[in-house]
Design goal:
Strand order of the largest sheet: 1-2-3
Order of helices and strands: EEEEEEEEEEEEEHH
CATH class: Mainly Beta
Number of helices: 2
CATH architecture: Beta Complex
Number of strands: 13
Distance between the termini: 31 Å
C-alpha cells in the first residue's frame, strides 16, 4: 500500500516497470503516484499473483497490511505496496490462501485496487478517499470505524471479521 494522495484519475500513466507477466507498475505523470495494472484479463476468483510476508512488524505503517493484533506485514512481492485503495475494489489480498485474487473480471490495463479496511482495523494514516465510486465512503480510517452492514458489502479478512465480532459483543 502506498501513502494515499490526491490522484488525477484520468491523467496519463506511463509504464515504469514490468513486475511480472501478470502486472505492471505505472507512474501517473501528473501526481507522481505509482499503481499496479493488469497485463491481461483476470476472471473472478483467479489468482493474480502469489503473495506472502517478508517481515512482520508489531506496529502498522502505510506500507503494511494487518493480519492480526500487533501483526502488520511487509508484503512480498514488494511491488504490491503500490496497490491502491478503492471503495469499489477489483482484488483482495487473501493471506490465508497466499494469493491476490480477482473479485470480479479485471480487464487488461485496468488498475488493481483493493478496499483497505478489508485488512486494516485502524489505519496508520487515515485519508479522504478519491476513488470516485458511486458508493465512496469518503473517510478511510479502518474497519473499526465502519458498521458491519458496510463491511458486509466487501470481502474482508478473517482477522477483521473476528475483530468486528469481538467488538459487537462488548
Amino acid at each position: 500500500m502506498q501513502e494515499p494522495s490526491s490522484i488525477a484519475l484520468h491523467s496519463e500513466w506511463t509504464t515504469v516497470a514490468i513486475e511480472s507477466n501478470r502486472v505492471e507498475l505505472k507512474l501517473n505523470q501528473e501526481s507522481s503516484q505509482k499503481a499496479l495494472f493488469a497485463k491481461h484479463t483476470f476472471l473472478p476468483n483467479e489468482c493474480i499473483v502469489v503473495i506472502g510476508a517478508s517481515v512482520i512488524y508489531e506496529s502498522p505503517s502505510y506500507l503494511t497490511i494487518q493480519i492480526g493484533d500487533a501483526q502488520h506485514i511487509a508484503v512480498k512481492p514488494e511491488y504490491l505496496q503500490f496497490l491502491n485503495h478503492s471503495c469499489n475494489p477489483n482484488c483482495f489480498p487473501d493471506f490465508e490462501k497466499g494469493e491476490l485474487i480477482a473479485l470480479k473480471k479485471i480487464e487488461t490495463g485496468e488498475e488493481l485496487r483493493y478496499f483497505y479496511p478489508s485488512t486494516e482495523w485502524s489505519m496508520d494514516r487515515p485519508f479522504l478517499c478519491n476513488c470516485e465510486s458511486d458508493h465512496c465512503l469518503s473517510m478511510i480510517n479502518g474497519a473499526k470505524y465502519l458498521p458491519m452492514e458496510t463491511l458486509s458489502k466487501f470481502q474482508i479478512s478473517s482477522y477483521i471479521l473476528t475483530k468486528k465480532s469481538e467488538s459487537a459483543n462488548f
